[in-house]
Amino acid sequence: MQFLKLGGSLITAKARPATPRPTVIARLAQGIAQAMQENPKMRLVLGHGSGSFGHTTASRYGTHQGVRSPEEWRGFAEVWYMASSLNRLVVEALRQAGLPAIAFPASAAAITRNRQVTAWNLQPLQAALEGGLLPVVYGDVVFDQALGGTILSTEDIFAYLGKALAPQRILIAGLEAGVWADYPACTHLLAEITPANVAHITAGLGGSAQTDVTGGMYAKVTEMLALLEAQPKLAEVLIFSGEQPDTVTQALLGASPGTALRRATHRNGL
Length: 270
Hints:
Layout: E1 2-6, H1 8-11, H2 22-38, E2 44-48, H3 51-61, H4 70-96, E3 101-103, E4 110-113, E5 116-120, H5 123-130, E6 134-138, E7 140-144, E8 148-152, H6 154-165, E9 169-174, E10 192-193, H7 198-201, H8 216-230, E11 236-241, H9 247-252, E12 259-261
Parallel strand pairs: 1-2, 1-9, 2-6, 3-6, 4-7, 9-11, 10-12
Antiparallel strand pairs: 4-5, 7-8, 11-12
């Protein structure tokens, strides 16, 4: 079992509102199809970010902080629309690549309290996996019992799904080659991050060069390290660039590009 996220900065032009990168999306879909053909026993949950579709709108309405007023609820619906529009493009590319993809939006099934999932019926998603389908999740709005509404990032969703599905690996493909020790200068790529060295490098972890209401790189690293500690079967989380043609395919087949997040040091992380 593996989880793969296609970052919003990878599949959209994040500096331009609601601008997809259709050629990149199609190439990634073909790469996923190739990996699954080479390893027919692979079980995969695919996630993707919202990029310039969801984050720009969510920032305008402050959706991540809570939803109370009529204007904020209208914004909540607009964020849902934008995120689902990008999801439709991703699922269509997967379909064109010959993959039996089916979307599982959090907005339709999850309830949170202060951004923590309290209820989510995962039986349909598990049935999709058992039937040989490719479940697709994505950063989405959710109804929240304390905040009215909020947003769950793909990493938040992976953290919750990980408890039930116990993936061995989580792959996060974005624009950056991995995690930089000196963002935004980007001259020193970290090979490995563990609980032992993360305190020494967090000062260099930047957020996002563009609008990202869910926290950017720092949030990704801290959330994934917490998930590693909580999930004994999870061996590693990889953060790497999906810009090169074969990187996602090779990562799905076992390669470890970019920066690896692990429990203990396997190689020099600094």
